[in-house]
Amino acid sequence: NLYIWATMNTSDQSLFPMDSAFKRRWDWEYVPITNAYKKNDEGEYELDDKGNKIPLKWKIKLEDNREIDWWTFLQSINKVIADLTTSEDKQLGYFFTKPDEKDDIISAKRFVSKVIFYLWNDVFKDYGFEPDCCKDANGKEVLYAKFYADDGETVNQDVLKHFFSQLKDDKENPLWSEPKETVQPQNESPDDEAEMKTTDEH
């Protein structure tokens, strides 16, 4: 007997759709989109002190060195895709792209060229640019080219940050927001301190 093992995404685009009669001759197993975990050289999951699997913890890095958790982003954008398409086919899996920098970092440039390009050309183009993450601060549709600066190579960080600011985590917090300024109390100068002591003595 001949056994063939294969994986596929049912939304993969090809010249011809797979025939239903052909598909009935195969055993199908649904594989949900999940977080990913570290494995050792033998392919076994690495465990922490409590016996739990250790997540990969990939990050998307912006220009101000702030990082966005890759899995948190996937959960957020997949909810947008599911609401828009009423389907799981177009959603992103953990290994849709991979880090291109050390310490499991996905650069902004790779994120735009891989993820944003897919969203704009294979999801929103077909189903509509209605989600807030597709629009600018004025509510107008953002063209893919706007994710790049005038040189066509450098990522437009402002547009990318706005995109992330319109996506929410499981606690309804935006994935990116402007850092809050903290007001530090002013230190009293030595002269002021001496003057206060003098006043107290009298």
Provide a descriptive summary of the structure in words.
The chain is built from 5 helices and 3 strands, in the order αββαβααα. With 202 residues, it is mainly alpha-helical. The protein has a 3-stranded mixed sheet. β1 (59-61) and β2 form a beta hairpin. The protein is globular, with a radius of gyration of 25 Å. The relative contact order is 0.10.
Features:
202 residues; 30% helix; 3 strands; mainly alpha; 3-stranded mixed sheet
SSE sequence, one letter per element:
HEEHEHHH
Low-pLDDT segments, ≥5 res? none
- Quaternary state of the chains: single chain
Largest sheet: 3 strands, mixed
Strand order of the largest sheet: 2-1-3
Radius of gyration: 25 Å
Helix/strand/pairing class, anyone?
mainly alpha
Tell me the number of helical segments per DSSP (H or I, 4 or more residues long).
5
- How much of the residues is beta strand, in percent? under 5%
Q: Total number of β-strand segments?
A: 3
Please tell me what the overall shape is.
Answer: globular
Write the layout of secondary structure elements.
Layout: H1 20-23, E1 59-61, E2 67-69, H2 70-85, E3 105-106, H3 108-127, H4 157-165, H5 190-201
Parallel strand pairs: 1-3
Antiparallel strand pairs: 1-2
